[in-house]
């Protein structure tokens, strides 16, 4: 269960983490295309990061399955591993950075949506700032996924368990 919640915590923020590319707010305002742009970016990001999330979870599950099938790692070991990893600096430091970024994200989104009628340009600028913040959150997610994979690899080496060769790496 802890493994699942840990994966969900990392994955949820992936869903809303587009690779931000600032739009031309003058052009967007002039063409009244802001809402269409913003919706499009979020739809594309959601699709992209759902696919990434699926791949990352598959890699993690293949590692865990290999460890469990070896008989050298138990369900209790798995529970302990995923229960403690969230307090390790390699995982918790990016989590702390994400918390700070989430405050920033909320401020940008609030500003974007409260100024949408009165100042389309300000809405555009705030929305771009939100997208950039989401990209920084995603960068921290990437660090967490890589950390979890590396820690599972350490366990496999210690237990002399071969991990699936085709499982891939954090992308």
What does this 3D model show about the protein?
With 171 residues, the chain is an all-alpha fold. 78% of the residues lie in helices and 0% in strands. The relative contact order is 0.18.
Tell me the number of helical segments per DSSP (H or I, 4 or more residues long): 6
Relative strand content:
under 5%
Shape: elongated
First-last Cα distance: 25 Å
Order of helices and strands: HHHHHH
Largest sheet: none
User: Whole-number average pLDDT?
Assistant: 79
Query: Radius of gyration, Cα only, in angstroms?
Result: 19 Å
Task: Summarize this structure as a short list of keywords or feature phrases.
disordered N terminus; mainly alpha; 171 residues
Write the layout of secondary structure elements.
Layout: H1 2-15, H2 25-31, H3 34-69, H4 75-85, H5 89-114, H6 120-159
Helix pairs in contact: 1-3, 1-6, 2-6, 3-6, 5-6
Gist of the model:
By secondary structure, the protein is mostly helical. Helix content is 78%, strand content 0%.
């Amino acid at each position: 269960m802890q493994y699942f919640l840990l994966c969900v915590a990392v994955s949820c923020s992936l869903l809303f983490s587009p690779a931000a590319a600032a739009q031309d707010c003058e052009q967007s305002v002039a063409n009244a295309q802001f809402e269409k742009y913003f919706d499009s970016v979020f739809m594309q990001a959601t699709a992209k990061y759902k696919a990434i999330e699926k791949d990352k979870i598959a890699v993690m599950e293949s590692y865990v399955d290999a460890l469990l099938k070896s008989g050298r790692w138990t369900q209790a070991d798995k529970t302990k591993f995923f229960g403690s990893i969230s307090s390790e600096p390699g995982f918790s430091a990016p989590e702390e950075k994400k918390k700070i970024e989430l405050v920033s994200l909320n401020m940008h989104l609030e500003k974007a949506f409260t100024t949408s009628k009165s100042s389309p340009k300000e809405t555009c600028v705030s929305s771009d700032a939100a997208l950039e913040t989401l990209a920084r959150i995603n960068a921290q997610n990437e660090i967490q996924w890589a950390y979890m994979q590396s820690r599972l690899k350490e366990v496999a080496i210690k237990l002399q368990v071969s991990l699936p060769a085709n499982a891939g790496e954090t992308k």
